[in-house]
Predict the structure.
Amino acid sequence: MKVARGWLRAAAAVLAIFAIGHTLGTASPRVTQGPREATVFAAMQGFRFPVMGFTRSYWDFYRGFAITVGVLQAIVAIVAWQAGTLAARDPRAARPLAVTVLAACIALMFLSAQFFFAAPIVVAAAAAAAAATAVWQLGRVEASTPSAGSPAG
């Protein structure tokens, strides 16, 4: 279904922008808020402790999780794009992937609202809206398509 494909590709594009923005925004954290922030950064970098055979700092976890989030956002964008491709050929098979993308977008939206600021909330909401529209479109196709076990199918 071409309409659902378009909405899933729109969600993929928004999610790719989200991933790029997140990655660029966290790529090289620098002090912008003054000496108190510099003190926090120094404390995070300076306090090292053993974890499962490795010595890490809070800064290592902060940076590692920031990079991990960017990678996972990119993967969700790729899955959304692939679901869009599948939706054009086999809407019924694409729906579970589209629902998964929608769930990820809704989770990103709520987590952004809880812990972050307007930009990620708006971007996640836009991706969720596009994914929700695709899921709705795919549901309409599924409802109008006879199942394989029915006399018409």
In short: The two ends are 18 Å apart (CA to CA). The mean pLDDT is 92. Residues 18 and 60 are 22 Å apart (CA to CA). The chain is about 80% helix and 5% strand.
